[in-house]
Amino acid sequence: MNGTGKTNYDVTKNVTISSAGTSLTPQSAAIGSSLSATVTAEKNGTYSGGTDMITGVLPGGVGPRALGSSLAGDWTLSLQPNNNFRVRLTNTSGGNEDVSITMFFREKQI
Q1: In a domain, 21, yes or no
Q2: Which strand ranges, in their side-by-side order, compose the sheet holding 51-58?
Q3: Considering the domain boundaries, does residue 19 fall inside one?
Q4: How confident is the model at residue 42 (pLDDT cuts 50, 70, 90)?
Q5: Which string of b and e fits 13-50 if b means at least 16 CB within 10 Å?
Q6: Does the pLDDT at position 18 exceed 70?
Q7: Which domain range does residue 62 map to?
């Protein structure tokens, strides 16, 4: 995760999806491969419930030191079929800020 302002984050498992969000298309890191992901990814839907698994803060700068921050997390999650998880970011900086997330995942047959 990278951000220009203070941001709280949480990862929650098995949320209820009240309204699906905008679909995202996962990109394969195996350039030239014909394999495609079977995962469903989306953003900006309406979700509730679930169980928090990971919580934390992406710190931000102030004034001339407002350089933002980066956070590298190596969270290994084993997601079984018919389960889901949500990553939620909450801007607590009081201003308009930018945040990005890069997620890597591996699929295997079980």
Answers
A1: yes
A2: 51-58, 7-13, 85-91
A3: yes
A4: very high
A5: eebeeeeeeeeeeeeeeeeeeeeeeeeeeeeeeebeeb
A6: yes
A7: 2-100
